[in-house]
Every structure is written in structure tokens, then in C-alpha cells.
Write a structure and sequence with these properties.
Structural class: alpha/beta
Strand content: 15-25%
Distance between the termini: 32 Å
Largest sheet: 6 strands, mixed
Radius of gyration: 25 Å
Oligomer: single chain
Bound molecules: nickel (II) ion
Helix content: 25-40%
Number of strands: 17
């Protein structure tokens, strides 16, 4: 019932949107291969020179580094937090650079062989934030073939004393860490045993017991008191404690990872006084999100003559954000009175809620680009569904509505995944390869090759791409195009769910 109402509203809204004129303009042939190959950017910039947060900006933003956009070739997508604290930024940048370096060496092993490739992905969630403490939880996914292997790493900072916290900093002494690990060994063994009992993979009870006995040394080793075993020991916004044991850490790979909730009565016994005091003080800050302002689909700022409704349209689309560069891009679009479409990642939208809110309020379209940019040709149907739903829910919570378009990461999918989307699927026909060419002039020139009804791909995670946009807008306007959202590009055209559109034709 609720969905029907939303649908009706969308239909009514579409009627009032202006269509795009069919008038011919001079078209330039698109040739993506014309660009000479240049070295890929694989070093993270010195962020203190590159970025500063203004007072009006969100405290924690997302820096995203990307290498490659071809699902058949090696590719990487890495995100880490950028904050008001230089010591955090420096740590996270170095942490991420090591993952990028590892990717580079794996990718080099594959050479030009396109049958398989390295596929690395890193994202983070904010688990706890207060004036005293901040906790990020990273998920790193690596694939050198068909499956992703996930690992989890907590990244925690003491803001009062300006330092990073690792597992050993929680404990009074090495002995109390040992005692804690003994308790964890028991809880881990219980969790593994339970999964084993539930498994149908055994012919009889004896076989099950044999496997169990073989697993015990692995449980001992995987729960021993050291930093590596407890690199995912953390607490969340409710001050609940968890430890995640990665796949293979305490059991066979088939059993996956184990997330264990640690009772307060257990962890409380071992925390050192200094940390315990800080922890007691730490109060999760209430999230201050302004109430949803009504969406502004068309602001009558320019006169009809200026808009030239007979002009043919092109659509600018920005993927993989929101990021540290998105608010600058929004400033540019507002100055130029241009509306675009943002294909956001759920993981990044959850961190930069204010930015997502602003995208919606300023009349841009929002598309769903998955939760964390996995290759949909590779993940299971269940995981694909989770990625779409999670991003829908995050967007709905922040903006009040779900994204009405979907774009597959890397444009990669299998036919069974198409049917999950339940909305039009958007491709592109202009790709400036902006992840590769970090040169605003070059990116602007490529994006400006768009012809009527083009869908232009770009990424608001690159500084150079955002810097290219004023020139792109000038060029497209000079060629007589109107720059529109996807809603406007498709207005008056029949667009079907679960079908791929790479232009507005
Ligand atoms: Ni993408």
C-alpha cells in the first residue's frame, strides 16, 4: 500500500518534468581507446596537503582510492576515514597503503592474463564515536579467483590523549591479557562446537568427534593472547564488546568467521584502570541530522529561455561516493544550477549522512551502487540481495526515500542478479577513465565528448574529477546541451525495471 503511494507520487512527479528536446547538435565521436596509457595512480597522496575539513563539514568523511574499473582485470576499491585529527588520518592512510601495495604485487602476478585477476576491497564502519573514543571496524575482502575472503580489523583511537589504541592497551598487564584469552578460548571453542553440531557434513557422530579433535590446536593458536589474534576486538555505540575471529583463524575456511559477543562481566575483569575510566566517560554522541527538508526537484532559478527546453539532454552521473570531495562538487553544481545523479555506496552514505542528505535536498537524483562495491558477477544471490537492500535502507533512513535507479559496480552482473534490482539499471556511454587519468583537463575533455542523451560516468571520489566539472559544464552548455538528472533524461520515455540503459535514447 505504502509502495503504491510512492509509485503514484513518482508518476505524478514525472508528468511535470520537462522532456528533452530532440534537436540535433554537432556530435563528436567517442573513442575511449584514443587515450594513451599512463601509469596508474597507486600511491596515496599526502592527505594533509590534499585535504582539510572545514568547520561545517562532517567530522568523519570517506577517502576512497580506486584502481581499475574492469571486472575482468585486477581492480581495487579501498576506503578509509578522513577526520579532523591528523594522527588518525596518517595512521589510516599508511594502513591502507600497505593493503594497496599488497594488491599491486598480487596484480603483477596475474600480468595481462584476463581469465582471473586480483580483486581487493576495503571498507569501514563507524562502531563508536564520542569526545573520548572513536572505533572503526574495517572489512577487507580479497579475491584471487571466484570467492572473496573477508577479514576484520578494528581501528581505535583515544582522542583525549591523541593516540591509537591496540588490544594490549585494554589490559592491566600481559597476565590479564592471557587470562582474558583463556576465557575467549572457551567461548570460541563453544561457538565452533555448536556450528559443528549443526553441520550435516558428517556421516556419523564419530566422524564429527574426529574433526573436532583435529580443530582444537587451531582454536588454541587462534585465541592465544597476541595483537594479531585480537585485531578485531572492539566495542560499539552501546558499549557492547565483540571479538571477530577471521575465517581460518579458529576453524576451517568452510565455517567462515566467528563474531563473539563478550559479556561485560568478562571484559570488565581485565580492563586496566586508565582505559576503564576513559571508557566509562565515553558517551556516544547523538547524531545531529537536520529534519528532512522537502525535496526540491526544480528550483525556478533560471528563466525558460536560459533553460532552453528544446535543447537535447545529457546526464552527469557520479559513482562511488559520497566522499571527502562530494561537498565541493555539490557547491559547484549549485553555483552552476546543474542537477546530477549520484550512485552512492551504502557504506559511505552511512558515514557521510549529512552529505547524502544534501544531495537529496538540492534536487539531485540518488542511485543505489551497492553497499561496498563488490563484483556482482562473483557474489551469491543472497549477498547481492543484501547489498541492494542494505543500501536502500541506509538511503531511506537518511533521505526518506529509496534510490530509484541502480548501477552495478564495474557494470558487472549475471542475469539472475538483474531480477533482484526491481528498478531501471543504469549503465553509461561516456567513460572518461577518471580513476586512471588524474588530470582535470583530460577528464574534462573526455567527458565533454558526450552526445545527445548521453549518460556520462564519473567518480566523485577523485579530486581531479571534481576539478574538471566546471569546464565540463561550460563545454556541454556551449554545445547546446541541457544537463539533467536521470529522472529528466527518461521523462516521457518508457523505462522498465531490471533492464539496462546506457543512454537516454
Ligand atoms: Ni563504481
Amino acid at each position: 500500500m505504502k509502495n503504491n503511494k510512492i509509485l503514484l507520487l513518482v508518476v505524478v512527479a514525472s508528468i511535470f518534468l520537462m522532456g528533452c528536446g530532440g534537436r540535433q547538435t554537432k556530435e563528436t565521436a567517442v573513442d575511449n581507446n584514443a587515450m594513451a596509457d599512463t601509469a596508474e595512480v597507486t600511491r596515496l597522496a599526502d592527505l594533509t596537503e590534499e585535504l582539510t575539513l572545514n568547520d561545517s563539514d562532517e567530522d568523519i568523511q570517506v577517502f576512497t582510492m580506486k584502481i581499475g574499473n574492469d571486472p575482468e582485470r585486477s581492480h581495487l576499491s579501498v576506503s578509509f576515514p578522513f577526520t579532523k585529527y591528523a594522527f588518525i588520518n596518517e595512521y589510516e592512510r599508511d594502513f591502507s597503503q600497505r593493503f594497496i601495495d599488497e594488491f599491486k604485487s598480487e596484480a603483477a602476478n596475474f600480468g595481462s592474463d584476463a581469465t582471473s585477476a586480483a580483486d581487493f576491497n576495503q571498507h569501514f564502519e563507524i562502531k563508536h564515536r564520542s569526545d573520548e573514543l572513536v572505533v572503526f571496524l574495517y572489512t577487507r575482502s580479497k579475491s584471487l579467483g571466484n570467492n572473496y575472503d573477508d577479514s576484520f580489523i578494528a581501528s581505535m583511537f583515544d582522542l583525549k590523549n591523541g593516540k591509537r589504541i591496540s588490544a594490549t592497551d585494554f589490559f592491566e598487564s600481559p597476565e590479564s591479557f592471557e587470562a582474558f584469552a583463556t576465557d575467549m578460548r572457551e567461548m570460541a571453542a563453544k561457538a565452533v562446537r555448536q556450528k559443528l553440531n549443526e553441520s550435516d557434513d558428517f556421516a556419523n557422530q564419530q566422524e564429527r568427534e574426529t574433526v573436532w579433535m583435529e580443530m582444537l590446536p587451531g582454536i588454541d593458536e587462534g585465541t592465544a593472547a597476541n595483537e594479531e589474534n585480537y585485531d578485531a576486538l572492539f566495542f560499539d555505540e552501546n558499549k557492547e564488546w565483540y571479538v571477530i575471529f577471521d575465517k581460518y583463524q579458529i576453524a576451517s575456511g568452510a565455517m567462515g568467521s566467528f563474531t563473539i559477543k563478550i559479556p561485560q562481566s568478562v571484559i570488565g575483569k581485565y580492563l586496566n584502570r586508565k582505559f576503564a575510566a576513559l571508557f566509562a566517560q565515553s558517551k556516544q554522541a547523538d547524531e545531529v541530522l537536520a529534519p528532512v527538508a522537502p525535496a526540491a526537484p526544480s528550483r525556478p532559478q533560471s528563466s525558460p529561455a536560459e533553460q532552453d527546453l528544446q535543447a537535447p539532454c545529457v546526464a552527469l552521473t557520479f559513482d562511488d561516493g559520497p566522499s571527502v570531495y562530494t561537498s565541493r562538487l555539490l557547491d559547484i553544481l549549485r553555483e552552476e544550477n546543474v542537477k546530477a545523479t549520484f550512485f552512492v555506496l551504502g557504506k559511505s552514505a552511512a558515514v557521510q549522512k549529512q552529505t547524502l542528505r544534501r544531495i537529496a535536498e538540492e534536487g539531485h537524483n540518488i542511485g543505489n551502487h551497492s553497499y561496498d562495491h563488490k563484483n556482482f558477477a562473483k557474489i551469491s544471490l543472497d549477498e547481492a540481495r543484501r547489498q541492494i537492500t542494505l543500501t536502500d535502507d541506509i538511503t531511506q533512513e537518511i533521505t526518506g526515500s529509496k534510490p530509484t535507479y541502480f548501477r552495478f559496480p564495474y557494470g558487472a552482473f549475471t542475469n539472475d542478479k538483474l531480477m533482484l534490482v526491481n528498478r531501471p539499471i543504469i549503465g553509461w556511454n561516456i567513460d572518461p577513465l577518471d580513476w586512471k587519468y588524474r588530470d582535470a583537463e583530460k577528464v574534462a575533455a573526455e567527458m565533454s565528448k558526450a552526445s545527445a542523451n548521453a549518460i556520462i560516468l564519473a567518480h566523485d571520489i577523485h579530486k581531479t574529477t571534481v576539478e574538471a566539472i566546471p569546464q565540463v559544464i561550460r563545454n556541454l552548455k556551449a554545445k547546446g546541451y541541457r544537463i539533467v538528472t536521470l529522472d529528466e533524461l527518461f521523462a516521457g520515455k518508457s523505462v522498465q525495471n531490471n533492464k539496462v540503459y546506457s543512454s537516454g535514447k
